[in-house]
Amino acid sequence: MASLSSPPRVPIPANGVDYRGKVVLAPMVRSGELPSRLLALKYGADLVWGPETVDRSLIGTTRRINPRNSTIEFTRLPSNGGRSEKATQESVIYRIDPVREKGKLIFQIGTASPELAVQAAKVVAADVAGIDVNSGCPKPFSTSGGMGAALLRDPDRLVSILEALVREVGNPYQIGISVKIRLLEKPEETEKLVTRLCATGITGLTVHCRTTPMRPRERAIRDQLPMIASICRKAGVACVMNGDVTSRDEALALMKEYGVDGAMIATAAESNPSCFRTAAEGGLLPWREVVHDYMEACLQCENRWGNTKYLLNILIPGKNKEFKDAKSAKNYSDACRLLKFDDLLPTAKEVDKIMNLDKKATISSDDDVRTSAVQNAMENNESARAAGGEMSRPKQNSPVASGSGPIRTNSIPSPASNPKPETGVDLSAPTLNPQQDAGIAV
Ligand SMILES: Cc1cc2nc3c(=O)[nH]c(=O)nc-3n(C[C@H](O)[C@H](O)[C@H](O)COP(=O)(O)O)c2cc1C
Hints:
442 residues; alpha/beta; TIM Barrel; 2 domains; 8-stranded parallel beta barrel; globular; binds flavin mononucleotide; Aldolase_TIM; tRNA-dihydrouridine20 synthase activity; oxidoreductase; tRNA_hU_synthase_CS
């Protein structure tokens, strides 16, 4: 029971989570897909934010369970870019591991409308611990639609979005609603905004300690933090700091120094998620170990190959030979051979088949490990490639990609039932998230 002197707290709903005392993975478009989140959790992140997903891209998706790994997938058929022929393969818009992410996943929404925000949030509400509104993305893709940082200049709208989410999603589904903002230019402006946001019923507020025009390379500014933390404390809202936090140990020290409740890490975790390990736990792991763990998670999740490759390029230091090799890999088997992850090779072959990536191999036979010189020659020389034989291999239709796999389709759970079903994982489909396609970094 709270003592008379303890500050008030907005009650944490039954299926929600308190951000206090937590060091968390930041929302990151592209870099915050399921394997990255699982890795962050494995290394000690207390909570993970998923990548911003725009309301309209989630509305109308189908929720299904992947029968092989039990992850939950929200899918839809792509529009096919206006072409007349209909796409046959569904795209996974969002993927959740209901076991390992249980009680730890915050879904971040990109929105400019209370109605659409509520509609989209209801799609995932029974499968997540919280819904966070992105009010900090400075990219034109976001701001031109009135989303992201545009909401900082339209506080009435932001307040109405948060109030609608609290009333129509947070309360019935018993999860927390939160917001992630940037600093405004003048402390008085930030103060006014934070005061209003804290009165909406939200359980948490994250502040990215940069203003909207600031570039990611510019150092975060923290002088407004004590003021923001104090407003949040008085309102009973958890305050999470973000910007230039590089490790769990540093996060804990900064939380103490600035009187904030939690800390969020983005770019440091993107390049080495073992930053969530304390020094006492051994601190940062060498990149090879991290990349091995990452690859294992990607295989378990059947992560989209393009996304896996994108992250490999970030996780492997640029000067390493493996960096060049990994760049040329066309599928999971290739990458595992090139990186000498022999233990993962059998699974990699299976996943390549499931995802229809096996025909894309740049290495001729399943058991033939070529040197990177041969590999590169094959990359650059069509005839050498043809002689490799992989190109002429008959296409194998995966039961999943061809739609005949035993995928179960669930209806969206109702708030009261709060089912939290078994897990599942991604297929080969390209993601439809418009931000990912637009390469948005927020
Ligand atoms: C690749 C990338 C993607 C990002 N995507 C999002 C996002 O989806 N939503 C969001 O609120 N912020 C996003 N951000 C911003 C981060 O969450 C964070 O606020 C910012 O990087 C500052 O933290 P840092 O100094 O630890 O990097 C992204 C940042 C990066 C680097």
